[in-house]
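Lab notebook, page 48
Experiment: co-folding of the full assembly
Goal: obtain a model of how the components sit together before planning crosslinking
Operator: M.T.
Materials (sequences as entered):
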Amino acid sequence: MDWPFLIDVARQLLSGVPLTLQLAGSGLLAGGVLAVLVASAAASGIAPLRWIALAHVEVFRGTPLLVQIFLIYYGLGQIPELRDSFLWPFLREPYWCAILALALNTSAYTAEIIRGALQAVPEGEVEAARAAGMSGVLLRRRITWPIALRHGIALYGSEVILMVKATSLASVITVAEVTNISYRLISSTYRALEVFVVAGAIYLALTFLVSLAVALVERRLNAHHAHRRT
Amino acid sequence: MTSPMQANTANTSPVIATEGLRKHFGTVEVLKGIDFSARDGEVISILGASGSGKSTFLRCLNLLEMPSAGRLHIFGEEVGLRAGKDRLRIANRRQVDRLRTQVAMVFQNFCLWSHMTVLENLMEAPVHVQGRSRAEIREEAEAMLARVGLTARRDAYPAQLSGGQQQRAAIARALVMKPRVLLFDEPTSALDPELVGEVLKVMRDLADEGRTMLIVTHEMAFARDVSSRILFLDQGQIGAEGTPQQLFGGGHNPRFDQFVSRFNQG
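Observation: model returned without errors.
Model output:
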């Protein structure tokens, strides 16, 4: 085993971790906000809003993320109006294109998680709140959303892990995150096995930390599921 | 029932009154025009076969179910209802929210808020709806828990309680709002037989205090012993109405007698 080489690889790949985390973090943040909007639209009484939300989910869930990245990075540049707009300084940057694609992709999945979590809130608990004089934002803030959060948190943890791994696709549009650095190391060393094993280990470590964090949050939120009858 | 409260307020306007209350689900008419009123201090048991509309009627009184037609008065105040597509709609959300804090409800399935401890369940509405101070409410909530025998379980979550404990907590949650009326929607129907007694005992104490209670129930003995009045719903209409002595004595109303005898055969 060539330890000095492995350590050198690890050192170089770790330099890509901040970018990987930035992509995942920004994507999740923007995607999360968008998901709330999409989920609200999906539950709205206005039919066209519902259709838009439905289409959004179907399109971004039903096409490969890689295709979405290509479309945004290579495809949008073909539209002259976009090239002349204030958005162009962002859309010509691989970094922003990757974040946009990740955000759109995760927003579709997260909107579905939110929808399912809201549906899982027991009708009786909402009725009890109404019967006690709650309505509108107060009812949602105190009862509906906290209960939905507890239903959705585990699924959302999986979505966060998927996003961390999905950032590796940004490598194909020259974003120098962990996978992209791996490619470049291989083209100069031809040692694919060692490089990808280290790259895989780095992703594994990251997702393990996410799992741990989600488990901690879940345990805190779900104290009420611990059956401790006396 | 001759509590002092009842005697003092016998002549005031009804606590809850309905006129021509109707409700249909699709083409099925569940309530066919109910005229009803309850006065302060009355304990009214609402009886009837399943499908007679008794739960629907109770749920219409705090508008968890929207009637299709009719009028509703609570504490002498007409509740604003406007016409909607297939049922009436709440005209003034704030009026209904305000009245609901005075008309507490206890559900068949307890419906405690699962993400809160027992004590938090009790404090939730008084603090966040009625805007009372946490310190003051905490004291009252603790006292209420002591009363229903749940002091030791105040920091437990609903899922950690037995059905009987959950229902007693739910009753305590209703009481800390200091409601003027208590609605009970089959409060013992979801309980194991051996847990029914502890809940009925709490309800019996409340009735003895002179609380105004409307109870949808299948507990015949309880209805006969505790109620000041029986309302018998039969296919969406009031089939019979009167004191337990009048109705349970037999011969007052053949449909009611039939209902009771079927019940006794079990």
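Interpretation: Chain B is about 35% helix and 25% strand.
Next step: discuss with group before ordering constructs.
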